[in-house]
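Appendix B, Record 12. Input sequence as logged:
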Amino acid sequence: MKRLIVVLCAIIIVNLTGCSSSDKPYNTEIFAMSTYITQQTYGKNNKIASENVNTLLINLENQLSLFIDGSDIDKINKNAGVSSVKVKDYTFELVKTAKRYSELSGDRFDITIAPLTLLWGIDTEKARVPKQEEIDEALKLVDYKNIILNETEKSIMLAKKDMALDLGGIAKGYIVDRIKDEYQKQGITSALVSIGGNIVAYGTKPNKSLFTVGIRDPKGITGNELLGKLTVKDKVIATTGAYERYFEQDGIKYHHILDVNTGYPYPSDLAGVTIICEDGGLADFLSTTLFIAGKEHINDYINDDRFEVIIVDNENNVYISPSLKDSFEITNDSYTLS
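Logged structural output:
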């Protein structure tokens, strides 16, 4: 078996030029939530803000991770089918939102998918193709309707034993709002954050121009190739693609986006989906959901005024929201705007 972990971001920061010596950024990088997280912040309190955000990210990982003993999610999973677990307010609100998104997704997104993700082990040393009977048993445990929320007690219970939550498809995007809160508290008006497949463009550059970010070529070999460039401010940019995390076995590539109906990696006819909007949780959720929905549903999303999209299909056609025509430019000759 050949295993490959892609740790490069789905979106690449292109430039941060035009800053005076008094506007130099404070740069940080940490590894948390199974990804590298970078910040470039500007302003008087940029060092304090960045370090506070890094502390926040580590604390939230300890609270929300599927893999950390004693986290809220770990406690919920260990008590599945046994008892409810009182959790922190932020955990409760995140799970509540994720359950609602699971309902809205039309069986494309489900935060109780953990039994499947753990079975496949993608992005771990134990990555493998499970036996069909193992997949069939895991599928019986995947159903967001069996998440029991108690608003009064702020407690959560999973109705069946061996059920488990996995917030990997929404947590990073949802946490973006907490990052923005810290920036606002410290008076930061200009920042770029990369958190896995999510970019936060906070405010504008110190010279008041928009940030320019590069959208990764979903078929690139090195991870550094670009599809195009996007100018943006005060938005979250979330990207999903089969290239992000996968392993190969017997010449077949198995990616991490699993179909909650079959239990196997979803055979999407899309190569990559990027969502641009103000709500990080929504962006994270939609990028995964639209990737699974596929090409036939592009028209359902492309004119939605709540968010904007950049979609690449497997034939190298690029579809964008009409509102992006002046802010997104394809820079790769392999792709055609449709």
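The helical segments are 46-64, 72-78, 89-104, 114-120, 132-139, 171-185, 280-293, 298-301.
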